[in-house]
Every structure is written in C-alpha cells, then in structure tokens.
Amino acid sequence: MEKSFRVTLIHIDKIMKKVFIYKNDVPHTLEIAAELVEKLEAAGIEITDKTDDADLIINVGGDGTFLSLMQNHEFPTVPVAGINTGHLGFFQEIAPSDIDRLINRFLKGELKIQPYNIVKADIFFKDGREIAHRALNEFVIKGQGTHPIHLNISINKSFIEKFSGDGIIVSTPAGSTAYNYSLGGALVDPRLHLLQLAPMAPMNNTAYRSLTSSILLPANDTVIIEPCDEQWTSMDILYDGVEEKYDDIKCIELTLSRRKINLVRYSETTFWDKVKTKFL
Ligand code: NAP
Is residue 98 in a domain? Predict the structure, then answer.
C-alpha cells in the first residue's frame, strides 16, 4: 500500500513542470509576459523563481535580453526558449503568437535543443590577481578612450602578431552575426565549434603591420593577448556589451568554455535561413 502511494507521488512530481521567465521591462514585453504566465498556469505549469529548479527557461525580449539573462544567471544549461519582442531575434525564435504551440510542445516533451558555445576570458593582473568572465557573443578588448592600442597576440604558445588599432574581438559562432559581422568578420554556423578573432580598425602601414582579416581557430586553441609594453596595460573589456575598465593587465587568455547553453530551436529554419531573412 505504502509503495503504491510513493509511486503516485513521484508521478505527480514528474508532471508538474516548472518554467522560469526572464524579461525586459519594455511595455510590449510585459504584456506578452503576462499572457504567457496566464497560459502556463492554465496548462498546469508552475512558475519558479530559480533557474536551476526549472525544466524550461522562457526569455521574453530581444537578443539583448537573452544576453543579459545569460550574464545574470551564470549561463544556465536548462533549455531556453526565446519569445521575440525585440528587433532582430537571432536567439529569440518564437513569435508571441506561437505561445500556445510552445506550451503544447513543452508538455509533450517535443522541444528540440541546439547547444551553443560560450567563450571564457581569464584576465591575469601584474600583482597576481586573476578574474574570469564568460560571453555568449563575444569579448571586445580595446584601449581606454579613443587611443589605439598595441597588443601582442599569440595562439597557444606561438606568437602571431603585434596588433595596432582600436582593439580586437573574439567571438563565438553565435556572436558571429553580431558585432563581429559589422567588423567584416565571417558568419559561422553555430554547429561549428570555433573561435573567431577579428581586428577592429587595424593599422596596416609602413610603421605598423596588423592582420586585416578575421581568423578562425579550432575549439581547443587559446588566444593570448598581452600589452606590448607598460603603456597599454589599461584596457576596456566588454563581454556581451557589459563594459569593465581594468588597469595593470598582464595578459588575457580566451578559450571556448566547456559549458554550453541549450537553445530551444522552435522552427525548422536553418542558420542560413535566419541569415537570409535577417540580413539580406
Ligand atoms: P544591444 O542594443 O543589446 O544589441 C545591439 C544589437 O545587436 C541589437 O539589435 C541586438 O538584437 C543585436 N544582437 C545581439 N546579439 C546578436 C547576435 N548574436 N546576432 C545578431 N544580432 C545580435 O547592445 P549592447 O547591450 O551594447 O551589446 C549587446 C551586443 O550588441 C554585443 O554582444 C555586440 O555583439 C552587439 N554590438 C554590435 C555593435 C555593432 O554591430 N557595431 C556594436 C556594439 C555592440 P535585438 O534587437 O534582438 O536585441
């Protein structure tokens, strides 16, 4: 008797699915989020305030909101579905009019997941301190203010170039369609696991020689960036648009993180279909 009671409890627990909702505070987003909560509750789905307790995270907003969800909640590995109320919607694939279908597929266990790489930067300071940040799109490393910066760039242990210019950006395949693309970097299908290093306004003349195109690196490679001399140890570092100013930097090591986020791929569209509709 006691045994069958326990089995029933486990069953109830299993069907009580939980969703964590993240959103921006734009009025249209708030309207859609309110509709979403109503529909989730009507379908018997619990709203949780913890990402690690959730079976699904739903992000309501644009790609910028998606990036802030990742930064504010430590890149959760729980599947994330994006309802687009923003402009571009590269991560945000689901139209607000498709909420019912999303809930239906979630309840039936029919959501398809695509893993996305994250890039990690370990920043080492001259006094021995170190800090780390992660980004879904990219790291931007540049001089403070409007001055060019001079950086030694190595791949693993091989010195590649002395870079001079505005800065460099190191992006994931997901980030290839963002700042990287505006800088002339290559568009990369997120099924590929690689890092892309793109120069920002590289100086290339008789005094300075910098690579002028982006380069693609295999998943296990490490990009090492060091100031050329004492004058360039202060840098602006941006990760997914979050800006920090640091002084006394000794070097920065960038690698693909072992952690991946899991995006709910809702439509059957491929990466290149998205590129076509958003850019061409
Ligand atoms: P933001 O206003 O949140 O984003 C700027 C634009 O980038 C928005 O239109 C956003 O789309 C779009 N976006 C974000 N991630 C994208 C992706 N993976 N693929 C295609 N488009 C994407 O600006 P922010 O808070 O300063 O920085 C967030 C991101 O903006 C950065 O990670 C960087 O990639 C990008 N950015 C681009 C430039 C540039 O192209 N010149 C300059 C600075 C920053 P939604 O409208 O859907 O939010």
Answer: yes
Is residue 96, in this structure, part of any structural domain at all? yes
Q: Give the total number of structural domains in the chain.
A: 2
Does 136 lie in the same domain as 44? no
Write the CATH number for 14. 3.40.50.10330
Considering only CA atoms, which of 66, 271, 102, 98 is closest in space to residue 188? Answer: 271
Range of the domain at 78: 2-110
Q: Do residues 140 and 166 both lie within one domain?
A: yes
Is 273 among the catalytic positions?
Answer: no
Q: Which pLDDT tens digit goes with each residue over 126-179?
A: 999 999 999 999 999 999 888 899 999 999 989 999 999 999 999 999 999 999
Nearest CA-CA partner of 263 in 48, 122, 73, 75:
75
Q: Which of 23, 143, 146 is nearest to 73 (CA)?
A: 23
Query: Rounded to 5 degrees, what are φ and ψ at 145?
Result: 75, -150
Query: Of the listed 13, 63, 236, 273, which one is catalytic?
Result: 63
**Residue 271 belongs to some domain of the structure:** no
* Ligand 1 binding pocket, CB closer than 6 Å: 62-64, 67, 86-90, 137-138, 174-175, 177-179, 182, 240-241
**Contacts of 122 by beta carbon, 8 Å cutoff, 6+ apart:** 130, 131, 132, 252, 253, 254
Ligand 1: residue whose CA is nearest its atom 17? 178
The confidence score (pLDDT) of residue 42 equals 96
